Structure formats: structure tokens, C-alpha cells
Amino acid sequence: MDVQGYRWVCWKVWFCRLAAVLTLGLLLILFHWRPRLAVLARCSSCPLALADVLLLRDGFGQQYVVQVLTEEVADNRSLLGDQEDSEWRDTVQLHKEEKMLLRYYLFEGLRYVWLARKGAFCRVSVLNEDWTCSDLHSFQNGLSPLEQSSRRHIYGPNLIDVPVKSYMRLLVEEVLNPFYVFQVFSITLWMVDKYYYYASCIFLISVLSISISLYEIHKQSTTLRNMAQLITNVTVRRSSGEEECISSVELVPGDCLVIPQEGLLLPCDAALLAGECMVNESMLTGESVPVLKTPLPASEGRYSSDSERRHTLFCGTQLIQAKGRGTGGTGAIAVVTSTGFFTAKGDLISSILYPQPINFRFYRDAAKFLLFLGFVALIGTIYSFIVLRRSNATVLELVIRTLDIVTIVVPPALPAAITTGTIYAQRRLKRQGVFCISPPRINVCGKISLFCFDKTGTLTEEGLDVWGVMEVGPTGFSELVSEPRLLPRGPMLYGLACCHTVALLGGQPLGDPLELKMIESTGWELHEPEGDQTELDSAFGGYRVLAVMRPPAQQLQAEGTVSEAMAIIRRFPFSSALQRMSVVTVAPGGHPALAFIKGSPEMVASLCLKETVPAQFSSILRTFASDGFRVLALGHKTLDGKMDLKTVERGAIERDMQFLGLLVMKNLVKPESAGVINTLRLAQLRTVMVTGDNILTAVNVAKSCGMVGSDDRVIFVHATPHTAQSMPTLRFHLGEGGATTQSTVGLYQNGFAYHLAINGKSFAALCDHFPEYLPKVLMRATVYARMAPDQKTQLVKELQKLNYRVGMCGDGANDCGALRAADVGVSLSEAEASVASPFTSKSDNISCVPLLIREGRCSLVTSFSLFRYMALYSLIQFCSVLILYTMKTNLGDLQFLFFDMFLVTLLAILMGTGGPSEELYPRRPPASLLALPVLGSLLIHTSMIVLGQLAALFVTISQDWYIPLNSTKSGAENLPNMEDTCVFALSGFQYIIMAIVVTKGYPHKKPLYHNVAFFCVLLVLLALMSWLVLYPGPVIGKLLQLYNISDMNFKMLLVALAALNLLVCFLFEVLIDVGILNFIYWLRGTRPSKKQYKRLDVSLSDSPSWPPLNQPLPSTQWTVIGVS
User: I need a surface site. Which of 24, 429, 822, 882 has the fewest CB within 10 A?
Assistant: First the structure.
């Protein structure tokens, strides 16, 4: 973020105040719209250290103005050490007592403090970003009251405070909105022009609109504040050893938090130091399965909440229960690491409050189109000025009439009208269980070109069924044992029973569905200590027991012996990045402790002694994975009795293990998955699988759900990084049996489509060492396996660099980063709304994806239709007024009111109610308002509008009974007259005609007649206009100031002219839809697509020799270095 400092200049401030008075406040309105101008006008540039005001510019080019705040802080050099003290505080002598002056500013809820050594304002979180895990353990004794008070002054209150503005402030801000300022200007102009009825009606509607808007904004802010703000009483430990109950608002980083056994709703981010916590994180991640959190190891490594997720308690999550704190009490101990908007919840709430601008062409073009209408208004203003000048109009009439053109051509309701389609789509989605927290992204759904899917729980069932166990014997793998409970007593059975993070809640086991199935298959039972567990701990060697696993009672009776129970004393939970978990167990009777590891077969095998891994490991794993089984491996080792099991680190446990065998689980594809993937494929939407599972299992699932066709080839991408022994290499080989002797051939020439499959390690090497090949791999890769959470996010961003509009569908915490990075993120969750992604679906399958895309396309098409209709409505009225100005007359007060309220507004509201088509069409709707078909249709329809109104006027003039308007007056004072009546008649039909013409149906929306309300209103309005033209009656005719023309043939001719106008415009619209304007592209010549992925696709299709099979490709980066 670019930051510039400014200081107040006294004379400039007073000069601006004087100018504001002289301009009757207009200068203040300008400053409100452009705060940067206010700073430049009142201040002078200065160094940041001396600044009173800061001008901020973010990465999107948006500018903000913030005030620099100061606060006196009592001197406490021991707070963060002398170095930190000198960084963030200026010292001054006040009343002979040393005080520190803290300089800071608040931006989007975050506090930025001045660091003199760095010469910049930095986030206050920088003061604790270098804390190591051992540093956090040092805070376990608690802070003193003085330290806590000093930190609170620096870090500020622990609040995620969503500002809820008062109705009066909202009213002032809303009225100063350019839309309403323009409305005030227009209403004033109409009142001066004696359009009292019309001005009064628009005024009442504006008041109603503002009232509704204020209520909705206040309601939404209050709802979000209630969701975000959490104030509760918590217990903290002080340095004196005492425990104190304080408000959560007073919490600061470094506070030692005592978590009660029954849990709590956490008001901050904290690192768990002692005990274990079962946490429900569904509000943040959408993951409904509770997660077990374990204590943070006291290592010297830098602490990061992302890398230490399994040891971090996040703000806003529900701690269901806490246990294992140790001597001196129950519950758990944690240290506060982040507060307020610096927490994970604060970051997500901030993304809702201050969303990044959506880089969507439709919204950019809408602003450009308004400028185009402004240019049209300028031309109309000049023309009307010339016409009125020739008719000897007064100066006041000249000003009023010319300004009136501006209010006609630039409809103030245009920006609001294009959001109507989005609002209707959001309501339809909510009825079908899809909730949206970012409505502008609904239109983006209509342009999605690629969708990424997680595998487990998204494409496949969440629950897994145990297929069997293959234990390692003296000669390799034994036969598959379908019932793990039949395994003989030994390390394999103990590992299956103990290597998990399942906990009990209310006597019911809670945890990962896979681990629940694994424990169930062994028949062993989980028990957790209750109350005083001193006796239990002593039975297991004096270790703190977290859980006890006991064999089934029938097994004890059958064997006639008392089988030993196993106590779990340490847990190292599963990490997606590490692809494994481990536990330390002890048995009663002085037996040595055993460590068990469970995880991906490749990872577990790499951590085991080579001689314990069977030779057929790879072939067995490939067989199971190719058949679509989920395979986990287990290992174990006996721990040295001298090892301190209470403080031992994970790395010391998870090495030199003995390979135990494989756990094989069947993971079925959800019945809906194949149908949805086929629907997307027929719609020419590319689908990609991103999973943490084995690459062969992923390929099998991709084939099962239709991502990879039965006749398609799968080519594996293998990239290796630079090592001390070798250079980085990239190799492609066919999936059938791995390496093949087949020479490099053109797969397309042989009639085969191909898909690339790549794992996380190769993806990392590809990004680091082969960036020149990365776009080509991304273009053809369908399966991404063994991908860590940060790699999923990186993949989404790399695909976006190719100009893909990327969607992402997932169901767990591992997908949160990718869900937020994608253009459209869909979280499958039972929660009504999760801040993890813009869209949350209550459905447990991917059937919501086609629905979302169909609604997005419908909303985008509707927004296009409404935008074009509002533009054409302005142009119809613009033509009418200019024609009548030329004839020295104008539309009447109630005529304007009838057109705007009863015709246009009613049609615009109902136009957006049409629902989406039942099928996905292969072509996506356009997103550019400045494309040739859109501009061409507007030009043609405007020409037809002008010709229609002129034809009506000339037909009227050519009649024998026509009496020319001969008056010294001008404008509406000449009503009723024949010229106005004929233009009124045809323009009234044109408002309805344009609504019919621009309301697109097939293929992205249901046909017009399915929108029953809109269709009925069209018929009623057509009948109404026909009645007003043919026989308005004396009362209505007088009310609308229509001239009484008795010639019925002439009236029928006007209706026929309107019908011809409809026919011609509709015919031109159909011809434009089928591409009649494409000859212009032909004349221009074929140009390559602006989208990089389309250009790459053409290039790869014309390169049959790519990818080169079985040919190691060196990195060009290393080649250049080597040559140089």
C-alpha cells in the first residue's frame, strides 16, 4: 500500500472554509466525493513522521484518507524490550515525567503504528510476528497488570467492531450520493419548469427509496455486527500465579488464557500450550466435523497460525470441550496470539466489510457507457440550445430546456436497475439452499470457464468403508484381511486402534469419519479419563493420559486372558502439508512406549526403515489406487526409555519407523457427481480435480465421474527439483504401466485426447524450475493430487493468470484459501452461511454447481437486458423531446409521469423475474456492454425509434385536417396539440416494444411466456396504449393533455406503424443474435483471442509432438546459468 503524509496548513484550511460558504456547500460535496482533493486543498506534503493526515492508495488504485491519531502511553521499557520500545514510541518530557507518544491510524479495522526505525506505519501485529513457539510457552506464567495495560494501549481493544452508523449519518451520506444529488438537481429543475406532479412523484419515490435503503443498510450492519462482535468474560493467569476474570475486550497478545473444561466461544486467536480441545470450526471453514487441537511444541521455530493450525484456536470457533491441562486444574491453557481484526475471524469479516473490487468487464463497461450517454446528452443539449435560440426563447427557458435534456438522457436509475437481476437470482438461490454473501459475484458465475473440485467429501462420499488390511510379514505383504478385528494382537491392530484423534463428547465418539470407521473396524472402545485421574496416570507409568483404548469384552472372554489396554499420552494431529499424524502410547506394567504413524503410503514409507518396506510396496499401492481405493499406511517403533515423552518433538518420533502395512478403504463416488460433470462437459466448461489423495486414486475417481473419458489417455507429469546430485528435470510418461518405450507421437494425430496428472511435489518443482512449461501443463492437466492447501490456492491463481474465470467447490478447511482466491467459491456445508467462501450450499453434493452457473448466466443476461432497456428508454424520451422542441412544444407533466412510472418502472421491475433455463448452453453469455452486437443493436434500435417517431409526425402533418402549431409560446404550455399527441402515441408503444425486444429468453433464460407476471403486464400495457390511441375518452384525454383527433383511420395507422416498428426491431434483434454483424469481423480479419488460455489451446492443438513422452526436459533457467 502506498502511503503519503500531509500536514494541515492553517491558511489553506480557512480558505477552503470560505470557498465552501461562497459555493453554498458545493465544494464540501465535491470533497466528499473526492477526499483526495480535500487533502490536497487543505494540506501540504510532509514526511510520514510529521504527518497529520495520510493518503493511502491500495493495489487496486483506490484512494483513502485517514487521520493520524496520537496517544500518551506510560513508560514501560520492559514491555517488548528496549529495541521495540525505540521503534514504536517517541519520547517527550511532560510535567518532568517521561511519557511515550504513540502515533497510529486505523484503516479497515486494523491498527497501524509508527515504527521510527523502519520509517513507516506498520500493522501492530508486526510486534509479535517474530514470536517463536518457545516464546509463546514463556508466556504461560501470564502477564503482570502493568504489562497487560501497556499492551492494551498499543494493540487496542479486542473487538471486531463493525461500524453501525446512525440513521442521521446514513441519511446524510445517502443524500450526498451522486445518484441522489442528481435527483435533487432534476427535481428542482422540473419544479422550476412547472412539472409539479412529475417532480412530486419522483420526490416521494426517492424518499421511499432512501428510507428502504437506510433500513436495509442499518439492518445488515447490525446483523453483521452481532455476528462479528463477541464480548464475554474469560479467565486469564497473571504473573503472580493468580487467575483473574476479565472482559474479553481487554485481552492482548501474550495473555495466558485459562479454558474451562466445558469449553467456550473463543474471542481471540490463541496457541494451545497445555491440554487438548475439541473445536467446531464450521463458522470459519464450513467443515462440520469437529477438530481436535493439541498442544504446541516448544520449538525454536517461528510460530505461524497457518502452519500450526492443529495447535491454534481461532476466534469465533466453538470450543466444545477442553481437557488434559495437567496438574492444578482441568481444562486447557492457551496464549493469545492475535486480537480484533488481526484474528482469522477478523480477516474474514474484513473481507465482507471491505471486499476487493471485482475485476469484471460488465461493471467496467457500465461506467464507460454512462460516459457515452453523457456525450449524447451534450449533443442533445447543443441541438436544443440552437433550436430554442432560433425560436426566441428566454434565457431562463434556454437554461431549463437544455439542462432538462441531461436529466432525460442519463437516467439516474440506471446503476440501480442492473442490480435487479442479481437480487432476483440471489432470492432464487436461497430458496434452493445456496446462500450468498457477495451478490456481485452472481454475475461472475455466468462467465465461469473452469471449475475445480475437491475429491473427498465433494466428488466422493464423506464416509469410507474399510475394505481390508494388508499386514507386512516376513516375506512381504500378507493376504488382505477384510475384518481388522480378526487381526492377531500386535502392532498393526494396536496402530489401527490408537492412531487417531477421536474424542468423546457426551459419551459419543467425535472426529474424522475415516478414523471413526477405522476404530469401529477393530472393535476396540475409546475411554477418556474423568475427574481426578491421578490413579489412572500412575497405572500407565505416571504419564498424563489423554485417552485409553480397550479391546472388546468378547475378545477377552474368548482368549481367557486379560488383554492389555493402550493409553494415548501424546498426539501429533494430521496435517495436510505433512500428510501424516502420529501418537505415542504406553501400556500398563512398565512396557516401553510405542509410537504409531498413519498417513499417505508414500510419506509413511519415506519415514520408515527401508528394510521394513516390502519390495512389492509400489506395485500393490498402484493396484489399489488404480482401482479407486483410498489407501493409508501405518508404521510404528519402540521408543527409547530415556526419551522425555512429555517434551519430545514430532520430528524425533516420526523417523526410523518400522513399516506395518496398509489400510485399504473404499471411497465411493457420489451418485450425482458423474451427471454434474457430464453436464458441465457438454456445456464446454472445463473441470479439474484438486485433491490431497494419491494420484492413481484421483485418476480412478476422475474416470468414474467422467472428468477423464474411458478412451482418453492419462499422462503423468514428473518434475524433480534441484538437488546436490542432480539438476531439475521434467518428464512426461503414459499412465499405462508408467514408463513406456513408445516414441514421442502426436496423441491428437492418433485420435486420442489426453489428460495430464500431476502431484504436489511435481507441481512445486514445475512452478519453481519450469515456469515456461507451467501454462502448457495447466492447459491439459485434469488431476492434481497430493496438493497441500497453499498449493490449491496457488493453482487457482495460476489458472486465473491464463484468463480463466475459475470456480472452486470444496467442503473443508483445507480448501478455504482456494475458495476465497477463486472467482466463485462454493462451500458444501450444513451451515446457513459460512464466511469461508462467497457461496455456501446446504447440499452435500456438487449438484449446486450447474444451478449456480445457470443462475449466474440468467442474472448476467437479465442485467444486460435491463441496462439496454434503460438506455433505450432514455433514448426514446430523448428523441421525443428533441422532435417536440423542434416543433416548439414538449411532453406534458402527466405524460412524463405515465411513461416513467406506469410503463418503464413497472416493466423494468418485472423484467428481471424470469428464471434460468433448465439446461446449460455450450456458449457463455457476453460480458461486454461495448461489444459490437450490443452497440450495433442499440444503434439500429435508436435509428428505428427516430424513424418511427418522425414517421408518426410526418403522417400527422400530411393529413388534410392537420393544423400547424402557431404560437409564441413554447414547451408544455402549447398542450394539447397534434404533434405532441402523435409522438406520445408512438413513443408509448416504443417503451413496450423495446421491453419485448431486449428481454432475451433462450438459451440462458426461460422463454418470455414463462415469466407470467411480465408477460401479462406486457399484454395489459399494449391494450392500455391501444385504448389511449384509439379512444382515450374526454376525461383521460384532458388529464393527459391529448389532442382529440376524430379520424379513426389515422389512429389505426398509428397503431399499425407501432406494429411495424415492433416487427422491424424484433427482426433486427434476431438477425443480430444469429451473427449478421459478424461480417464486420470478417472484414477486419481474424484476430487471436485476448484470453491467454484460448491462444494456448490453439497452439497446443497445432503441436502434435507435445508433450514429449519419456524425454527428460532440462530447466532453461539452469541451462542459462550453466552456459554463463
Answer: 24
